[in-house]
Amino acid sequence: MAVEYYDFGPHKIHHSSVFHTTDLSFASVNLRPAVPVKRVADLTDDETIDLWRIATKLGRQLESYHKASSLTFCIQDGPQAGQTVPHVHIHILPRKIGDYENNDDIYDEINEKEKELNRALEVDKERKDRSIEEMAIEADEYRKFVF
Q1: Given a cut of 80, is residue 80 above it in pLDDT?
Q2: Which of 30, 74, 103, 130 could lock 134 by a disulfide, CB 3.0 to 4.6 Å apart?
């Protein structure tokens, strides 16, 4: 264990929820690959390469693990784009045939979930969405197949 908690904007991510790290990025359950930079334009070339290298490798593994047939990679870059945590991060969403009647409806759902998260963060700064134990169990599953 390198650190007990990883910084994610104003939030702390317990090490047990992190299942992959590099010198520049980390991947965790619930919040997925992230680097401590507010906006995509602020990333260095090395950070951009590292973030997408992790996202593509992890995406392949998540697609297989969840028996999906496709992936949606989503970045919300800035508050008006729906970014609720001031850190560059990628949501990796395994997709299956028929998971949405209209394929682009996923973006409406992402926006709604981001609004819910934003409301929850205003009420609950500790982000008690899931327990550390629940997140650790999911991270343990993902550690089995990561790189």
Answers
A1: yes
A2: 130
Distances (CA, A) of 100 to 15, 56, 103, 107, 115: 34, 23, 5, 10, 20
- Whole-number Cα distances in Å, 18 to 4, 65, 96, 108, 131: 10, 17, 25, 28, 14
Give me the active site residues, please.
Answer: 89
Cα 142 to chain center, whole Å? 13
* Whole-angstrom distance, CA of residue 11 vs CA of residue 31: 11
Estimate the crossing angle of helix 45-65 against helix 132-143, to 10 degrees.
90
Write out the H or E segment, with its range, that includes residue 125.
Answer: none
8 A C-beta contact, residue 27 and residue 15: no
pLDDT tops 60 at residue 60: yes
Q: What is the pLDDT of residues 61-78, one digit of tens each?
A: 999 999 999 999 989 898
- Find the mean pLDDT for residues 82-103: 86
Return the residue matching tokens 């409406």: 108
Backbone torsions φ then ψ of 73, nearest 5 degrees: -100, 130
27 within 8 A of 58, measured Cβ to Cβ: yes
